[in-house]
Amino acid sequence: MSSFWSAWIIVLTLPVLIGCFVLLRWNLTNYVGVPEDETTGHEVDGLEEVNNPLPKWWTYMFYATLIWSVFYLAAYPGLGNWPGFLNWTSSNQGIKSLAESRAAVEQAKADGRYVQLDAENATADAVYGPVFQQFAKRDVLDLAYDADALKIGQRLFLQNCALCHGSDARGQRGYPNLTDNDWLYGGSPDKIKETLLYGRRAAMPGWQAALGDQGIKEMTAYVLSLSGRAVNDQLASAGQAKFGLCAACHGADGKGSVAHNLPFGAPNLTNNIWLYGGSASAIEESLIHGRFGVMPAFKDTLGEDKVHILTAYVYRLSNPEDKR
What cellular-component terms does GO give this entry (predicted)? Predict the structure, then answer.
C-alpha cells in the first residue's frame, strides 16, 4: 500500500474513534438543565420524556468496544501500513509461484511472524497426513471402490479439478470429460496418476501456412468424414491425400495416440468426441491455429499421497462397475 493511502486510512479511522468517544461522553452529560429522573416537558401521545442517563451496562459496553478497537488496530495489520505489534498476518501476500510460497513460509519463520494460513496448513498436515499415507499404501483399483477413499478423492477433485472439468467431471470446451472412456493419454490407473503428477501440455501445430485456405477446407472435410459425417466427397478426397501431415500423431486411420500406443495425446478423430467442438468451424479453427492446452502438474502442490487417492477417484468416474 502506498504511503498516501496508508495515511488516508489512518486519517479516516482515528478521528472516527475519537468522535465516538466524544459523542459518548457528551451523551453522559446533562445539558438540559433538568435534574435526573425529572420530566423534560416533552410529551407525545401521553408519553413523557424523562431526563435519564444511559444505562451503566450500556455505557460500559461502549467503552469496552472502543478499548477493543484501539487494541485491535494496534495489535493487527489494518491501520494503513502498520503491521501490528503481534506480528500476525492472515497469509503471505503477493505470492505468484509455489517456490515463492515456500520461501515466504521460511522467511516468516525466520522473522518470527505468525502467518495464520501457514499454521493452519501445518496443523492439517499433522492431522490428516497419516490418513493420506495409509490410503496411499493401497492399490488404486482397491481405493477406487472404497467409500471412504472416494469421499476424500471427491473433495480433492472439487478443490483442485472442478474449476476446469466441472463439479460433475463432465468437462467443457477444451477440458476433457472424465466420465467417459475416451482418454487422450490412457485411462489406466498408472496413466491417470502420471497425468495428475506431471501434468499435460498439448502441442498441435497450426497448419495454415502449410495447407493454405483451400487445404484447410479439404482437411476439415476429411476429418469430418472420419467420424461418419456427410461431407463433400471431392474435398474429403483431397484432404485425405494431405492427411500424412496429421498421421504421425493421430495415426493413418485417425484413431489417435492411445490406439497406436503413442505419447502425444492426439485425439481419436473417428469417434465423434471433440474436445474443442466438432463443427466444421471449430475443426477449421483447430487446424488454422493449433491447440496448446495445458493441464497443471499436482505433484508439488498436492503431493504423491493425495494424488494417489485422487487417481482412484478419477478412475472410478469412468469405471463405475467394480473391476477388481
Answer: plasma membrane
Is 249 annotated among the ligand-binding residues? Answer: yes
Instruction: Please tell me whether 42 is known to bind a ligand.
Output: no
Rounded to the nearest angstrom, the gap between the alpha carbon of residue 143 and the centroid of all alpha carbons in its chain is 25
Q: Can you give the pTM of this predicted structure? A: 0.78
Amino acid letter, 72? Y
Other beta carbons within 10 angstroms of residue 252's beta carbon come to: 11
Is 161 annotated as a binding-site member?
yes
- Residue type for 6, please? S
Annotated binding residue at 20?
no
Q: Please, what is the angle between helix 147-160 and helix 304-318, to 10°?
A: 100
Residue 1 annotated as lining a ligand binding site: no
250 annotated to a ligand binding site: yes
pLDDT in tens, 27-72: 777 666 777 777 877 878 888 888 777 788 999 999 999 999 999 9
164 annotated as ligand-binding:
yes
